[in-house]
Design a protein that fits this description.
heterodimer, A: about 80 residues, alpha+beta, about 20% helix, flat, B: about 525 residues, alpha/beta, TIM Barrel, Pdz3 Domain, 4 domains, five-stranded parallel beta sheet, 17 helices, 20 strands, binds iron/sulfur cluster
Chain lengths: ~80, ~525
Amino acid sequence: MADYVFRYRLEVEDKGEPIYHDPLVEMIREQMENLLNIVIPVEGQREVKIDGFKLLRDRERIYNIFAKEEENPGDLFPI
Amino acid sequence: MNSFQDIRNAALYEPRIEFIKKQLESLLRVVDLEKGGEVVQVDGFRLKELKHWLVSSRCDPAEVFEYASTRCDCDCLFCYNKGNPPSVALGNLRRPPKEELEEMKTRLDYFFPKAKQGLFSSLGEIYEAAMHPHFLEVLRLLREKTEKPFRITTNGKTLTEETISHLAELKPIYLYLSLNSASAERRRRLMRDRNPGIAIDSLPLLKEAGIPYAVVIVPWPVDSLSQMLDDLTDTIAYADKHDCHLVEINLPGYSQYFSSKKLFDLDEVWGETVSHIRKLRAKTTSPIVAMPTMYEENLYEERKNLPQIIGLVKNSPAQRAGLNKGDLILEINGISVPTRPQARDLLFMLQQSDNRQATIAVDREGKALELKLDLNDFCYPYSRETDNHLGIIFMGTGLRLSYLEGLKEIVDAHKARHVLFLSSTLMKPTFKQCLTQSHLFDDPRLRIDIQVPRNNFFGGNVFMGDLLLVQDFIDFIKEYLEKNAKPDLIVIPSSPFNLGEWGRDLTGRVYLEIERGVGIPVELLQCATIYD
Ligand code: SF4
């Protein structure tokens, strides 16, 4: 007999206020945040804590991965 | 096509599914998918190969049959499901029973007791499994795969002679029978059970069928406290008369979602109930535990964590060998057992072993005694398959001293000098005592500050440490920092995050968010959830 199908709904539209208004930066930020909720990065044997990232094309600018309460969502580095 | 699963349930136990959902949603916000040059609108996804989703598991049969616990034919005044906050990650799919059966059958196909593997859990709210139309069918299928006992919690509404005879064919079975009252009138009122006679009359039938059971009572002060205690006395006497294995009293509580008004004074109701139970223990043969057991221990025992016997299962090897309530266990087979977890572990090993004899040395009112146990000498309601400690009942699990070693390792790894340890009202006295007695933390430069966060999220009179959420911890730590020096390290027992193996609280938030929220390293101290 065929397996029961484990199905999950996608809610593409249903997202709160973004942290970054640039959708491509926001996409990377979200993906990193999601990832950091299920893995702990390590370097060698050592656990590494990260809270931001830079794009390879622009090493000057740092983007925060996690929303900070005190910061107004959407106001970080508005494009 | 069957229904969508509730992602909240998966988020707790298998957050990689939630991860996939969020990643897909994130991607779909910036791209459209195509097929044959046309944009394809997707509104869901499915797991491809279920064998990829196997996880290590104890393979307790409940991991399958609990998926039948999706509805209830009672409506208890105190039903815990009524007090669940909306954001708790326990969805209820409300699918047709046939579809639930299909999921259970698939779970059975991937239930591998020998390999200790099973499909990831995605349980939602737990109601009454026994009323599910396919419950017995699932138990029968399960019995083909495992000899482990079925431990079933039931309100007893289905326990007719016929059902009990079917259950008897599927032994070993142990029932947690939520009787609540042996008075038909009171049970009707408390549980809105229109036919209370079935559950009440099931006790002698269970005995006749050789199915051991615990009688579970939530002493709910629906009228006066004294009426409640009188009924408790009668119900326990009734359970005792019919040789119940154990009486389990679940001290009542409620969240702010259950009632925004104060329904009763918790300390008054709990204090009076426990004091009453202590008197009843003296006249009752069946063992009685009041859960959470640490409440009684904190109230009455100056020295915590001791392996003192509070009850003995009728006709168990321990009872037949002459052990008594009140005996303090000193040694088991010549091995000293200064703490309750040590005693429980040794008794559990003996229970599982092929040993046929054991020696237990006790302190009885100041006199040392040694008793020989014949492990083959037992009969109903004790059974080798469903008992754990040769019939000895303690005041709960107690605190393992190995947790202190775990704490020491964490503190050393962080070279911490000021540690904020977040405990619970119930656990703090025992933890404090164990910490004082241990020499692991003698360094005078080290300060361990033990604090107890409030359960803001559940609210009401809920004060269990295991029901604390990420947000409760963040709020408490921020408040703490306003009045105290910043610690170098915060340690939290892992038990509020133990439901899955992914460090999630009951709303699915990961404990790592605490550190992100407060800016101080946070470590979980691995320890088991204390269910009693
Ligand atoms: S029997 Fe259990 S699930 Fe059903 S209403 Fe009562 S407490 Fe709730």
